[in-house]
Write a structure and sequence with these properties.
The chain is an alpha/beta fold and about 475 residues long. The protein has 14 helices and twelve strands. A hairpin with an 8-residue loop joins β1 and β2. Bound molecules: guanosine-5'-triphosphate and magnesium ion. Magnesium ion binds next to α8. Guanosine-5'-triphosphate binds next to α8.
C-alpha cells in the first residue's frame, strides 16, 4: 500500500458537545501527535491523557485523551490516532488546524473507509454499509445495514462467485475435449450449474425491490372529495394536522408527515380530493393537479373510497398508480364503514373488492379507528412488494434475509444474471464451450465488482463521494 500521507478529520458532528473526536490515519499519525504533546510516547491501545500545544507559538491548546491503534489492527489498516478533545466547533477547529500545520492533510469524504477497503479491512459491500448504518432511517434499514456490515452480503456474493469460477474451469476443461455440449450428460450438468447460479442471483436481484425502499417510502392518500382522506391522515398520525370538514374540497395543498410503521419510515401525504362530476374552482383544479402529480411519484397510492355513499367512485379509477407493474404499490380503503351495518356493509365492501383488480381492500373508519392497524400493515406490505394480503408478517426476524439496497450492487448483479442467462442459452444451442465460457467470465467480472475484488478508481470515487468527511 502506498497510502503514505497522513490524513486527519473531525470524526464527530460539528457543533457543541461534551467530547469531539479528531482522527489521524497514516504512517506519521503517532509522530504528529507526539510532537503536539511535547514528546509523549504513545503505546498502542492505551488511552492516555495529554496536553496539546501549538509547536510554533507554544500556546496551550486542549487537554485531551488519545489512543493509538497500530497498523494493521485499526479501522483503516494504517496507524490511527484518535484524539478525544472537548467538544465544540472552535476547539475542534483548533485541533484540526494544529495537525494540518504539523503536516497532516484534511481527509476527503469517506477517505478513512476508502483506505480500510484498500487495505483489505472491509469489502466494498461492507464499506457501503458503513454509510448506510450512519444514514439509516428506520429500524428495518438499520438492521439490514448492520447485516451487510457484518459481511452477510459479501459472503453470499463470494459464494456465488466461487461457484461461477468452478463453472468456468469446467467449461474450460471441455474446450480441450471439444465435446458436444448441446445434449448429453455433460451438457445437462453444465446447464444445471447455470440454473443453480441463476436462482441464487435471482434472489439477490429480487431483494433490491424491497431493499431500495428500506430507507423510506412515500404513501399518498387519494380519492373523491369528502371521502375522509384528511380524517384518516390525522388518525394515522395521531394528531390533528389536516383540516377536516363536511364541505367537499377542504384540502387544497397537499400535506406531508413522517411516521415509522413496522420499522419502515413512511412519508404520508394527504391531497386534495377529486370531484369528477361537478364544476371545480380554479383553486380546486390546481389542488387536484398537485395531488395527481404527487401520486405519480409516490411509492404507494392509497385510494380512499367512502363506502357509505352508493355508487361511490370505483376502486379502478385512481389519481395515480396507473403503472402498478412499475413498482407502485396500491391499497384500497373501504372507508367510513362505521356508517354501514350488516348485509349492506358486506355488499358494498365485496363490490369494492371485486372492482379492485386483486388489490387488497382494507375496511376502515377514521371515526372509530377501526382498520387503522390493518391499513398501516397494508401500506408497508405494498411498499415492500409483499403479497397483497396484509397478514402482518412484522419484522419477520427469522424469514428475512439480507437485502441489496445499493443500485450499484443491483446493477452488477443484473449484469451477472444476464451473462449467465446468455451462457445457458448458448449452451442449449450447442455453442462451443470456449464461447459459453465468455459469458461466465463476464459474470465473474460483474460479481467481483460488487465486493470489490475488481474495481476501478471511478467506482471507488462514486462509492465514497456519498460519505461524510471523517468517516
Ligand atoms: N362517519 C364517518 N365520517 C367521517 C369519517 N371520516 C371522515 N368523516 C367525515 O367526512 C367528512 C369529510 O372528511 P375529510 O377528512 O375532510 O374528507 P377529505 O377526503 O379530506 O375531503 P377533501 O379534503 O374535501 O377532499 C367530514 O365531515 C368528516 O367528519 C369516518 O370514518 N366516518
Ligand atoms: Mg381533505
Amino acid at each position: 500500500m502506498q497510502q503514505q500521507d497522513t490524513i486527519c478529520a473531525l470524526a464527530t458532528p460539528s457543533g457543541d458537545g461534551a467530547v469531539g473526536i479528531v482522527r489521524l490515519s497514516g504512517s506519521r499519525a503517532a509522530e504528529l501527535l507526539e510532537r503536539a504533546a511535547r514528546g509523549v510516547t504513545l503505546r498502542p491501545r492505551r488511552m492516555v491523557r495529554v496536553d496539546l500545544f501549538d509547536p510554533e507559538s507554544d500556546a496551550a491548546l486542549d487537554q485531551v485523551l488519545v489512543c493509538l491503534m497500530r497498523a494493521p489492527r485499526s479501522y483503516t489498516g494504517e496507524d490511527v490516532v484518535e484524539v478525544y478533545g472537548h467538544g465544540g466547533r472552535l476547539n475542534m477547529e483548533a485541533l484540526l488546524g494544529l495537525f494540518v500545520r504539523l503536516g497532516a492533510r484534511p481527509a476527503g469524504p469517506g477517505e478513512f473507509t476508502r483506505r480500510a477497503f484498500l487495505n483489505g479491512r472491509l469489502d466494498l459491500t461492507q464499506a457501503e454499509a458503513v454509510a448506510e448504518v450512519i444514514a439509516a432511517r428506520g429500524a428495518r434499514a438499520l438492521r439490514n445495514a448492520h447485516a451487510v456490515l457484518g459481511g452477510a452480503l459479501g459472503r453470499e456474493v463470494r459464494a456465488v462467485r466461487a461457484q461461477a469460477v468452478a463453472l468456468a474451469a469446467e467449461l474450460e476443461a471441455c474446450i480441450d475435449f471439444a465435446e458436444e455440449l448441446g445434449d448429453g450428460a455433460v451438457g445437462e450438468g453444465l446447464a444445471e450449474r447455470h440454473r443453480a447460479l441463476l436462482a441464487q442471483l435471482g434472489r439477490l436481484v429480487a431483494s433490491y425491490r424491497r431493499g431500495r425502499r428500506l430507507n423510506g417510502v412515500s404513501a399518498v392518500l387519494v380519492g373523491a372529495v369528502n371521502a375522509g382522506k384528511s380524517s384518516l391522515f390525522n388518525r394515522l398520525l395521531g394528531s390533528r394536522r389536516a383540516l377536516v370538514s363536511a364541505e367537499p374540497g377542504t384540502t387544497r395543498d397537499y400535506l406531508e408527515a413522517e411516521v415509522e410503521w413496522d420499522g419502515l419510515r413512511v412519508t404520508l401525504i394527504d391531497t386534495a380530493g377529486d370531484r369528477q362530476h361537478e364544476r371545480m374552482s380554479v383553486l380546486e383544479r390546481e389542488g387536484l393537479a398537485l395531488a395527481r402529480e404527487r401520486a405519480r411519484t409516490a411509492d404507494v397510492v392509497v385510494q380512499v373510497i367512502d363506502v357509505s355513499v352508493a355508487g361511490g367512485a370505483g376502486a379502478g379509477e385512481s389519481a395515480g398508480g396507473e403503472s402498478a407493474g412499475g413498482g407502485v404499490g396500491r391499497v384500497v380503503v373501504a372507508h367510513k364503514v362505521d356508517l354501514l351495518a350488516g348485509e349492506l356493509r358486506r355488499q358494498r365492501c365485496r363490490a369494492l373488492a371485486a372492482g379492485a383488480g386483486g388489490v387488497g381492500v382494507v375496511e376502515a373508519s377514521a371515526a372509530t379507528g377501526e382498520g387503522l392497524e390493518a391499513l398501516r400493515a397494508a401500506v408497508v406490505a405494498a411498499a415492500l412488494g409483499d403479497a397483497a394480503e396484509a397478514g402482518g408478517e412484522g419484522l419477520g426476524e427469522s424469514r428475512e434475509t439480507v437485502q441489496v439496497t445499493q443500485e450499484r450492487q443491483w446493477e452488477a448483479l443484473r449484469r451477472a444474471e444476464l451473462a449467465l442467462g446468455a451462457g445457458l442459452t448458448a449452451l442449449s444451442e450447442g455453442t462451443a464451450p470456449e464461447l459459453v465460457v465468455e459469458h461466465t467470465r463476464e459474470a465473474l467480472v460483474a460479481l467481483g465488482e460488487i465486493t470489490g475484488e475488481t474495481f476501478t478508481e471511478d467506482v471507488l470515487d462514486a462509492v465514497f463521494a456519498r460519505f461524510c468527511v471523517g468517516k
